Amino acid sequence: MKKVINGSITFLLLSMLVACTDEKDDYARIHSNLLPSEGHTYSLQAVGKEITFDLLEENNITNVGPIRNEASYKSMNEQYPKLELQKEPAFIVFDENGLVLKTYDYKEMIDFLQNPED
Fold first, then answer.
1. Which of 100, 99, 102, 70 minimizes the C-alpha distance to 85?
2. Contact 66, 80 (CB under 8 A)
3. Contact by Cβ (8 Å): 85, 77
4. How big, in percent rounded to 5, are the helix, strand and coil portions of the chain?
5. Which of 4, 26, 55, 57 maximizes the CB count within 10 A of its CB?
6. DSSP letters of 14-70?
7. 48-72 in b/e burial notation, b at 16+ Cβ within 10 A?
8. What is the CATH class of 24-114?
9. 111 with 80: CB under 8 angstroms?
10. Which pLDDT score is estimated for 23?
11. What pTM did the predictor assign?
């Protein structure tokens, strides 16, 4: 009987632990510098094409901060191998929980940031 009670308590504790974990992905837990700054919805990593706040504002995008530009996908892969980038340009978007978009298409990145609910 004691084994059953101990097993039940262990199961209950493990269930509670799993239920309490948040939805953040590995990027959010390990590389918090990739996440958006306070008050912004997204952060953007641009590889092989420089993106500026002015460029985003021209496209009516104001929900991004910070923007980080990297010249080479190879150097990005060295820093963040899990991204597994294949070419340039590449655009990686993060929210407070982690990676939400990885694309090689500039227009897809712009569309996503203009219409994040779609």
1. 102
2. no
3. yes
4. 45, 20, 35
5. 55
6. HHHHHHH-----HHHHH-GGGSPPTT-SEEEEEESS---HHHHHHTT---EEEEEEE
7. beebeeeebeeeebeebbebeebee
8. alpha beta
9. no
10. 59
11. 0.77
Within 13 A of 39's CA, how many CA atoms are on the CB side? 1
Strand order in the sheet with 42-47: 64-70, 42-47, 90-95, 98-103
| Tokens linked to 28 | 């959010």
Domain extent listing, the chain:
24-114
3-state secondary structure of 101: strand
Q: What is the pLDDT of residue 117?
A: 75
Q: What is the pLDDT along the chain (118 residues), one digit of tens a residue?
A: 555 455 555 444 444 444 444 556 777 778 888 899 887 899 999 999 999 999 999 999 999 999 999 999 999 999 999 899 999 999 999 999 999 999 999 999 999 999 987 6
Nearest to 93 by CA among 42, 58, 20, 33: 42
